[in-house]
Amino acid sequence: MKSRGKPYRPKSVTLVTIVHIPETIGYWAESLDVLKICLHSARTTTRVPHDLMVVDNGSCAEARAYLSKLHARGEIDFLVLSSRNLGKPGAWNLAFPAAPGEYIAYFDSDVAFRADWLEESIKVIDEFDHAGMVTARPRKAPRVRERDDDRVTREAIARAGPDLTVERGKLIPQDVIDEHFRSVGAEMGTRGYPEEEIRITRGGVSAYVGSSHFQFLTTRRVAREILPIEITTHPLGDDFRWDVGLGERGLLRLSLVEPLVVHLGNSLRGETLSSEQEALLSSSSRKTTPPARRWWMGSSLVRRALKKVNRVTGNLLLEEKFGD
Predict the structure, then answer these.
(1) Do the domain assignments include residue 298?
(2) Residue 7 within a domain
(3) Which end of the chain is more exposed for a tag (fewer CB within 10 A), N or C?
(4) Which one is predicted more confidently, 269 or 108?
């Protein structure tokens, strides 16, 4: 096949996000606005040269039209439009092997970024030889993963020798913890999270042990070793299989010591937007009243209760699978 001009030379970093907005009412009433803020935030805070890959996971026509417009303007480099919802791990199976960059920076389409999030993440993943993923805000490791994280950390310490220092205790500031848990409708002190954190330091670079699937940096090499992830009907989803793959290879799950990424969720209520962000949303229809037949989808109390049930059930299932 003949082509015009020189082939495109991809950047060393590929940003990857997955979009699933099946409709713009009820639970998803503000999701398109959240997506706009997310992509705008990524574009304006990411100074490292990069390409942006977006996988649309069976969204409605309005969301697909918006993504297609950004692609036509060159703001999205690689756009995949799927008529089916593959789920997050299924979309990882599709997107990560196709990402051309040496680094893959994944984020859910409901987050916002702060300056230097990518630079600091790259510092961590480059400094710690056995880092498998790095989330750009301090993260507590769920107790069901704590045992595995401890084992991998001990192995990393043994390999690194005296160059690696380890601290244990209540190290993450409480306001940083609260910021994230408020955004996901969870309460701190609930079952499933340890009281103490682990912080490791080498070469002047520090990181917490623990990470999250809503945003992380990994490498193309690591992704190709772990993928594809088997897709099942596990109640918690299949995200945890990524962590299992890292643990089996002795790879650390890490996070930054500063909160440089923020989870927005499905609503912008309570968020402080810049004038530029407000202008971005000024032409959009802000549908916030769900139809009566779906009143429960707009209820934050119901969503929090369902998330808590899902989290507790998932923890029990993982403890049964990975516990002693």
Answers:
(1) yes
(2) no
(3) N
(4) 108
